[in-house]
Amino acid sequence: MSSDPQGEYIDKGVLKTGEDPNDYTGTIWAIDLTLTEIDGQLYGIWSGWEENVESHKTPQYLYIAKMSNPYTISSERVKISSPEEEWETGGPLNLNEGPEVLKHDGDIFIIYSTRESWTTEYRLGQLKLKKGSNPMLPENWSKKGPVFIGDESIHGVGHASFTTSPDDTESWIIYHSKVSTKPGWNRNVRAQLFFWDKNGDPVFGKPVQIGVLLKEPSANN
Questions:
Q1: Has this prediction a pTM greater than 0.90?
Q2: Domains of the chain
Q3: What is the pLDDT of residues 89-99, one digit of tens each?
Q4: Which of 220, 110, 209 shows the shortest CA–CA distance to 167?
Q5: Nearest to residue 116, comparing CAs of 33, 46, 184?
Q6: Out of 19, 142, 143, 177, which residue is the most buried by the measure of CB atoms under 10 Å away?
């Protein structure tokens, strides 16, 4: 924690990512935690295991919990997504990971990565929160996917984040893709425009081919 991005940081310790927010010994393996505020309440969303095991070859799920501040989980965790759809399964390890919150016109989405990060099948799925509903109830999240996937020349697109152009008129997705089809994590970082459909859902389209010159983000100057 720090009040200055360029200043000294204080290590606030381990987040309680288990079933009991009051029990550090029950912390369960977790990765890719992100924060968001919904109706004035701070939440943490992450990828984690159902229980701690010796093997890393373990399915990963998406969890949400309330937070009293950016470094303190203050409620039980709730599982909101499991790798169970046909487009989320079929490889050596079923996983949901890399959740990133995307908000637009009152709608709240979680865009996450699924399939195996070291393979060409890595892709993005989407959760959408029912408007005005409690995000701690799994039934209030609807799943859709894949919403972004590679093709014959661009492989393993995933682990996205989002931003807007300097004048806030454009939406941009930043993600990575594999450099080759061989299993592994040799990847590059990519960015491109995306749009919104009439239902207010993001439309990411297809990954832009290498060598295609992108327009500069709109800046009103």
A1: yes
A2: 24-203 (2.115.10.20)
A3: 999 999 999 99
A4: 220
A5: 184
A6: 177
